[in-house]
Amino acid sequence: MRMYDIIKKKRDGEELTTEEIRFVVHGYTRGEIPDYQMAAFLMAVYFRGMNERETYDLTIAMLESGERLDLSSLKGVKLDKHSSGGVGDKITFVVLPIAASFGVKIIKMSGRGLGHTGGTIDKLESIPGMKTSLTRDEFIRIVDEIGFAVASQTENLAPADKKIYALRDATATVENLSLIASSIVSKKLAAGADAIVFDVKVGSGAFMKNVDQARRLALLMLDIVKRNGRKARAVLSNMDQPLGRMVGNSLEVIEAVECLRGEGPEDVMQLSFTLVKEMLDLAGVRVNLNDIESMVRSHEPLNRFKKFIERQGGDPSVVDDPSRLPISRDIVEVRADRDGYVARLDAEAIGRACVLLGGGRSKKEDSIDHSVGIELLKKVSDHVKAGDVLAKVYHSKRSDLNSALSLVQSAYVIFEHPVESPPTVLEVIG
User: Fold this and answer.
1) Domain check: are 176 and 286 in the same one?
2) Nearest to 351 by CA among 215, 218, 201, 162
3) Is 84 found in the same domain as 173?
4) 342 - beta bridge partners?
């Protein structure tokens, strides 16, 4: 079998066999296939696509490239939740403690942010002392005790994905449904959960710009998971504007705590409750929204979040005293230049502004400033008067402040006439 022949076959739009796909993935992972041939293969897939069977085989080949987490020591259904990435997405910190409070076990391997989307691990590491690199035994022990744990992805789980993704990122072949689905699902299957809920973002701040694209991705991922004998659901959620009012690492931790107190923004609470309900349903726990609201009011999820921080080496006092988090005191206000209603708040522009402030990465090697971010005082449908503060920008010495301010200002579009507030949850699939 030759890589040259496989590249040519896919270039000409032909269907690859299971053996050919395994040859490509395993050969590249072992270093037997050079980057230039793999890049040509990825570009052929990007333009010619893969059918469902090829996509499934690609996922399984990537899954087979490394270890699988053995969760057999944990009793009951093990759950996982994945977000396709967005701006202001602190949902993991809200959903996991609430769902765990109903007695289920949740395992969560997360990544760092790259580009305009924030990373769960970066946000967690804004908490002083927080440890996100856990051994397998540490990870399982914390899940057993608290009900959930959040750790950075290990080198040994689906290593093919890490190597292939780096090449996709460098060769403009990221936005392909088969490549996206196999990347996400191979890691989720390797992590060992029995059931997975996917939060697929749709809009300007997401990979999927429209509902049709997002639905196709969701159905593809659900098919792969179910063919592998696991349960799955997908929730399509709006990412045309940022989620919640805080964007930036420490700021998002603060907002997550507000949500666990039952005092968070309506869009974050609505999406969190929807995801909790779907996760619990997959685990055979039947609850309604009133049950979830009552659980939040009991403060059990908040206390569980404190224990989680403490067990992973962090300072749990940040929950009661947010000033212990690194938050910049240098703040610039962005104001409305006319009367009217916020008609648009571009999520991607806000995300890019946060990167310019130092709160995100343009390259994987970039360091993160946990103290910076953006507080959105006005969102779509809100009425404003000229001079009203639209947003507060938290910056530091390393921030490209002028460029960030320009982006935040341009993200807001104000109309004279009232505008309806957009829905947060667009669809539940599966």
Assistant:
1) yes
2) 201
3) yes
4) 414
**Structure-block tokens of residue 111:** 């990544």
Specify the DSSP class assigned to residue 16.
P
| Boundary residue ending a domain (278, 296, 319) | 319
> CA-CA distance, 318 to 123, in Å (whole number)?
13
Asked whether residue 393 is assigned to any structural domain, the reply reads yes
Q: Which residue, among 328, 425, 368, has the nearest Cα to 111 in the 3D structure?
A: 368
* 150 pLDDT higher than 80: yes
**Residue-level pLDDT at 86:** 85
Please state the rounded mean pLDDT for residues 160-177.
86
Beta bridge partners, 198, equal: 82, 234
Query: Which residue from 428, 376, 390 is spatially nearest to 88, judged by alpha carbons?
Result: 376
Residue 362 has pLDDT above 70, yes or no: no
Residue type, 189: L
Query: What is the sign of the dihedral through the CA atoms of 319, 325, 329 and 332?
Result: negative
The string of pLDDT tens digits covering residues 100-122 is 999 999 999 876 655 566 688 88
Q: What are phi and psi of 303, to 5 degrees?
A: -65, -35
Which pLDDT band holds residue 157 (cuts at 50, 70, 90)?
Answer: confident
Residue 308 and residue 204 share a domain: yes
- The whole-angstrom separation of Cα 46 and Cα 429 is 26
Are 171 and 287 members of one domain?
Answer: yes
Least Cα distance to 199 among 85, 118, 282 occurs for 85
Which residue numbers are catalytic?
82, 161, 168, 183, 187
Distance CA 330, CA 371 (A): 10
Question: What mean pLDDT, rounded, does the chain reach?
Answer: 93
Q: How many angstroms separate the CA atoms of 261 and 41, rounded?
A: 50
From first CA to last CA, the distance across the chain in angstroms is 39
Condensed to tens digits (0 to 9), the pLDDT of residues 38-91 reads 999 999 999 999 999 999 999 999 999 988 888 888 888 999 999 987 899 999
Indicate whether 222 pLDDT > 80.
yes
Contact status, residue 239 vs residue 267, Cβ threshold 8 Å: no
The two tokens of residue 373 are 């971010």
327-354 mean pLDDT: 96
Distance (Å, whole) CA 57 – CA 22: 8
Classify residue 396: in a domain, yes or no.
yes
Provide the H-helix boundaries in 64-106.
Answer: 91-100
The one-letter code for the residue type at 194 is D
